Amino acid sequence: MSNSFKSFVKALIPKAWNTEIQEYLSLPGQLAKTKQKLNETIRLLEESERRVKNLSTLILSEKYPELQERRSPKNELNAREFKLYSQYGEDGILLYIFSKIGTTNRRFVEFGIQDGRECNSANLSLNFGWEGLLMEADENFFNAAKKYYQNMLGQQANRVKLDRCLVTAENINEKLVNNQIEGEIDLLSIDIDSNDYWVWKAISVISPRVVVVEYNASLGDEAALTVKYEPVFDRFEKHPTGFYHGASLAAFTQLAKLKGYRLVGCDSYGVNAFFVREDVAADKLAAVTVKEAYYPSYIRVQRYSQQEQWEIVKTLDFEEV
């Protein structure tokens, strides 16, 4: 259609109709935005319902502990597990740890958060007023996390800063400094399914009182092993099971000792290990050995036994530390 014909048609239409026509033409876009907002609201309501159920379960289990099914708690940390925002029982463990050692500035750093809805610092920032830094490499996850915390925190959203970046051993300290995170903080949480060991080893500009790191339970409770360092790392490219990632609990515990931390336990799903700085733990939280703390991966043993997992990964390119 030529511009002259468009002008001719436009001239025939009464000016009073223009606004109504524009509003009509914009309806599909408005409906799409409304649908998007509605879907997001439904998702938030479903999340809220799940968290209320989790909280109700916690209250009932505290009141009637004899009816609560627990998976072989190895120490007091495991008896305190519960989930509100964390992946498994990390929320309860962290609250227990900080109830024993107290807090200082209530600042945190966490990387490998995906969409931010299910991570170790979420409960602390959303329910206890903590502030800190979240880092995520994936663009879609990062955008979803940013929107989520803006919705959840509203005018206080600036308490939680988000940075889209691929964390490496080479850039981690620079990233922290650029985001005004230096010195002592209360919590560091690492879950990048790749160079976790090497990144923690490289960190020097902060001194977390508590460190949570995901260990690779498929490597067992004896060998001190980590993946070879590669700045860009995809565990599923390394092996279709995704079992080639991170480091063993023994490797992390060894690194922790070099950095001045003690292992105080692991969650009972065999995912995260909890370390507390020696001067902070003191006589408040006892150190435990790798064998005392270790749990196999609850998810992976549904398909492969612990021995089968080890047989899958033992010939891959790990580095003994």
Describe the 3D structure:
The protein has 321 residues and is of the alpha/beta class. The chain folds into two domains: 69 residues; 251 residues, Rossmann fold (3-Layer(aba) Sandwich), CATH 3.40.50.150. It is 44% helix and 16% strand. A seven-stranded mixed beta sheet has the order 3-2-1-4-5-8-7, with helices on both faces. A two-stranded antiparallel ribbon has the order 6-9. The radius of gyration is 24 Å and the shape is elongated. The N and C termini lie far apart (72 Å). The mean pLDDT is 88. Keywords: Coiled coil.
According to CATH, the homologous superfamily of the largest domain is Vaccinia Virus protein VP39
Q: What is the name of the CATH topology of the largest domain? A: Rossmann fold
CATH architecture of the largest domain: 3-Layer(aba) Sandwich
Distance between the termini: 72 Å
Order of helices and strands: HHHHHEHEHEHEHEEHHEEHHHE
Low-confidence regions: none
What form results from the Cα inertia axes? elongated
Text of the CATH class of the largest domain: Alpha Beta
Please give the share of residues in helix.
40-55%
- Tally of structural domains: 2
The average pLDDT value, as a whole number, equals: 88
**Which structural class best describes the helix and strand composition?**
alpha/beta
Report the major sheet. Answer: 7 strands, mixed
Number of DSSP E strands: 9
